TrEMBL record:
<keyword id="KW-0808">Transferase</keyword>
<dbReference type="InterPro" id="IPR002813">
    <property type="entry name" value="Arg_biosynth_ArgJ"/>
</dbReference>
<feature type="binding site">
    <location>
        <position position="404"/>
    </location>
    <ligand>
        <name>substrate</name>
    </ligand>
</feature>
<feature type="site" description="Cleavage; by autolysis">
    <location>
        <begin position="195"/>
        <end position="196"/>
    </location>
</feature>
<keyword id="KW-0055">Arginine biosynthesis</keyword>
<feature type="binding site">
    <location>
        <position position="159"/>
    </location>
    <ligand>
        <name>substrate</name>
    </ligand>
</feature>
<feature type="site" description="Involved in the stabilization of negative charge on the oxyanion by the formation of the oxyanion hole">
    <location>
        <position position="120"/>
    </location>
</feature>
<comment type="similarity">
    <text>Belongs to the ArgJ family.</text>
</comment>
<feature type="binding site">
    <location>
        <position position="282"/>
    </location>
    <ligand>
        <name>substrate</name>
    </ligand>
</feature>
<keyword id="KW-0012">Acyltransferase</keyword>
<comment type="pathway">
    <text>Amino-acid biosynthesis; L-arginine biosynthesis; L-ornithine and N-acetyl-L-glutamate from L-glutamate and N(2)-acetyl-L-ornithine (cyclic): step 1/1.</text>
</comment>
<keyword id="KW-0963">Cytoplasm</keyword>
<dbReference type="GO" id="GO:0006526">
    <property type="term" value="P:L-arginine biosynthetic process"/>
</dbReference>
<dbReference type="GO" id="GO:0005737">
    <property type="term" value="C:cytoplasm"/>
</dbReference>
<dbReference type="GO" id="GO:0004042">
    <property type="term" value="F:L-glutamate N-acetyltransferase activity"/>
</dbReference>
<feature type="binding site">
    <location>
        <position position="409"/>
    </location>
    <ligand>
        <name>substrate</name>
    </ligand>
</feature>
<comment type="subunit">
    <text>Heterotetramer of two alpha and two beta chains.</text>
</comment>
Amino acid sequence: MEQGSFKVLADGSVTTPKGFRAGGLHCGLKKTTRHDLGAIVCEVPATAAGVYTTNVFQAAPLQVTRESIGSDGVLRAVLVNSGNANACTGEQGEADAYEMRSRFAEAIGVSADQVAVASTGVIGENLKMDKVRSGIDGLPAKLDGGLAGAEDFCQAILTTDLVQKMVCVELMLDGQRVSIAGAAKGSGMIHPNMATMLGFVTTDAAIGSDELQTLLRQSTDLTFNMITVDGDTSTNDMLVAMASGLAGNQSLTPQHEGWAAFADALRYVCEVLAKAIARDGEGATKLVEVQVRGAESDESAQAIAKTVIGSSLVKSAVFGADANWGRIIAAVGRAGQPVNPATVDIRLGDIVTLEQSRPVAFDEDAALEYLKGDTVVIGVDLHMGSGSATAWGCDLTYDYVRINAAYRT
């Protein structure tokens, strides 16, 4: 499928870019037999970048990954476990994260500072390191350069997620075929501010670490940082990108004629993953998109969009298919941004419910049918400027409470 300057590969994955293998297995951290330990490995030193949660309580693996990427901006692998977040576990948790890094580095024959570590799951419990060690020893044999390895990795990073989340695109740069792919997990504790989620991007483009960091941050601000499920920012949020440079293009810089095209493709990959996380929100039945236009600035529009998408009352109204635009306007008004109370328009899909801050007669039955769909778009136009933003989330259902009331048990 063509998307502007790039093409979406229906059968692509994190192993599609040249130089990458992936895999996963069940080591016993989860009660089920679903994979709970996985890795992505690059056959050459890969340029790396990362963004991390702003939660004050940051899990031990984040410290390890920051250190690995910060040493020289290069990674050879990322090792991920699910079923245990290794967060709020003190000195033992730090020691366990460093052991995971060094043991996997030895298993694949690279230096320890070329391995990133990520964990997701229950907070405040120590890792069962005997199971982790056994899993790490068996993981290299599971690494595969095809779709099967990528799917095993995607399964290994899931917690309460119902579906795997992958996307891959390709574009031409300097006459060379360049691929960008991503995988992510996230379903609950989703209100990234980086980045409750884990995300991993692979590409075979040639690009420096600083340039990759710049683009990753820009893409994150417009995608992962514009989603919410429940307003909670995790201790473990992390997004890591690795670039093998094996595509053969000239190294990307802002002066490269393909810079904008690559940036667009990377943002698309992040947006697809972000929306997949929002759609897969715990107990969710609908993807909700909030489009804010006419704000004084993009930053103001972002704040308003995230306030609306994060409103429990708006989310509940969407779940109940109730065209209660009053909840939307109330959220707009409490976002702490400049708003003219006399010029706001609101629509549900194509159905206008408020125009110039005055109620508009609309077909309630048509609105009901629209809100029963699996995707709901809420439009807000402030008529104040050129600022715009889009945020994504989901409805708030009975199942969200059920799932989180029993998360540890």
